[in-house]
Write a structure and sequence with these properties.
Blueprint (H helix, E strand, L loop, with lengths): L11 E3 L7 E5 L3 H11 L3 E13 L4 E14 L6 E16 L17 E3 L3 E3 H12 L39
Parallel strand pairs: 5-6
Antiparallel strand pairs: 1-7, 2-3, 3-4, 4-5
Amino acid sequence: MNPDHRLPFSEVVRVNEIGAGITRHLAPDEAARARIIKALDLASLASLEATITVAPAHVGWTLSGRVTADAEQVCGITLEPLPVTVDERFSVHLVEQVEALPEVEVTLDDDAPDVIEEGRIDLGQYVVEQFALALDPFPRKPGAQFVQPEEPAEISPFAVLKAFRPSGSDGKS
């Protein structure tokens, strides 16, 4: 299994290894967690674990699992660390890539299956994706309030000239 170094965490399974189904427990090491922290702009990531099952379906495969994590996001208002606990279950339908037929109309569907490319399923990619989807996109500490800054008074371009006026002068010649 060659990890894809462009992804923060990669654990590849080949389709021909699945057979009647497989279950994997995944926990990224410290270096992978550091890459995930950078990719998701987190303050810290103490733990990230997932149990994933890939099983044959009527058409393709079903990838299902559970992602758990303890992390810290950055509050969007106070910029302080905000603890977050993730415990999410998910299920994704997978199909093998088929050669494109000419003049095929493609419709986008929310429940459209993910396409397996080159006979490989990257379980690590699904772990990071599901973890990211479980995070609050706009984290805010309880009680944190956004305070609109006061609008500065508009400064006239001639206000600078006031400093050059002799004191006691009323500006009349």
